[in-house]
Amino acid sequence: MAFWKQSLGVGLCAWALCLGGRNTLSAAEWEALFNGQNLEGWTPKIRYSPLGENWGNTFRVEEGLLKVRYDQYDKFGERFGHLFYKSPYSHYRLRVVYRFVGEQCTGGPGWAIRNSGVMIHGEAPQTMMIDQDFPASIEVQLLGGDGKNPRTTSNLCTPGTNVVMDGQLVIRHCTSSKSKTYAGDQWVTAEIEVHGDQVIKHILEGEVVLQYEQPQLDDRDAHAKALAMKAGQLLLSGGSISLQSESHPIDFKSVEIQVLETPQE
I need a labelling partner for 56 at 20 to 30 A (CA). Which of 66, 171, 187, 251 fits? Predict the structure, then answer.
């Protein structure tokens, strides 16, 4: 958590320099971002609470798992949360192993049942407003089956952003993948392959279930437009990685990254 506390006064230029530094690395072995013991390297930002305050002990490590829990909530109260990793990334593969468990927190929205996500290409958490629900980012939406209907996972949602598919700018908020339904409390391995501001792939069981390109800030959104003005462009070449809390308990067994070599210009 110390990284973000020390970084609160750092501007977007420093963030970009850090991002650029990651790009100089050649392809590497898989590296664990979650150490299985504690939240070292991660910082929570929960709606209505300041950066770094883990309201309600939402994010915790128990039994070697990174857990998202709501047992200390009276009701959800739209306290959407995100757990940010300390470093931004641009070209990489990200792999998470997750499962949905238990029952949704009282007061959680209907659409959030067995719903969570991994946010990539996100804004720096210190740029979020205290009452902001989601960071401007690309969301790889994680959904668990409801036991009744088909329900894909590794979908795309776009808070404050847009993408391009088949040469067309996509401005709808969510796009479903072509995955099968994963019901119950089974472990699911989701992989995301990210190539800066070019191609992004959602992969399950070795199959690409969704693909798009040119992730970018949405200038129809006031906060995203302000971020774009500071950055001098809409295109997103990289950014933060975070895990969501959206009112349904979820476990993460592992969170790993493989940094990819930046393509030569």
Answer: 187
